[in-house]
Design goal:
The protein is mainly alpha-helical. Among the domains are: about 5-50, no CATH class; about 130-165. It has 7 helices and no strands.
Length: about 160
């Protein structure tokens, strides 16, 4: 837009200062170019005021909010996992596997190769025969059976098999 149109639009909209308004009044009264342009812009402004604005449907806001909610629901949630816990658990299993591997290798007896690995004398392994008594094994098996039944029930509920029976 040129400056004439900008000044006239500000004059029509009422956004110009009093000094500018007085100056534009004088220019419209004296200058033919300003007067014609002012009449054109005034007619255009009247046409704009007659046009009805399109309004969104009543459920527009609801539909937009549901679309946003669905978009956020598709994104996986970031669980706050403490990395120290993960490292501690992995360290425990690495140490356990390493000790079991050392124990297994130390108890391997080869008949012809005469390879034997012995643990140092100051390292004593616990006697696990004391811990694996009959009541302990029965309790362990009972716990495993109850846990298995619980998991089987959860699987049946997820599949919907229990509703059909």
């Amino acid at each position: 837009m040129n400056t004439i149109e900008e000044k006239l639009w500000n004059y029509i909209d009422g956004t110009c200062s009093d000094e500018e308004r007085k100056a534009i009044d004088i220019l419209i009264g004296q200058d033919e170019v300003y007067r014609r342009k002012y009449e054109q812009l005034l007619a255009l402004n009247k046409e704009f005021s007659k046009v009805e604005l399109d309004e969104p449907p009543m459920a527009f806001t609801y539909n937009v909010m549901e679309a946003i909610r669905a978009e956020h629901a598709r994104q996986p949630l970031k669980a706050g996992i403490n990395k120290r816990i993960i490292k501690g658990i992995s360290g425990f299993f690495i140490v356990s596997i390493a000790l079991l591997l050392i124990l297994t290798i130390s108890n391997v007896h080869t008949g012809t190769a005469n390879i034997s690995v012995h643990l140092p004398d100051n390292l004593r392994l616990p006697d696990i025969k004391n811990y694996l008594s009959k009541p302990v094994l029965e309790g362990f098996l009972f716990f495993d059976i109850v846990l298995g039944l619980f998991l089987f029930d959860a699987w049946l509920r997820r599949k919907g098999v229990s509703k059909q029976v």
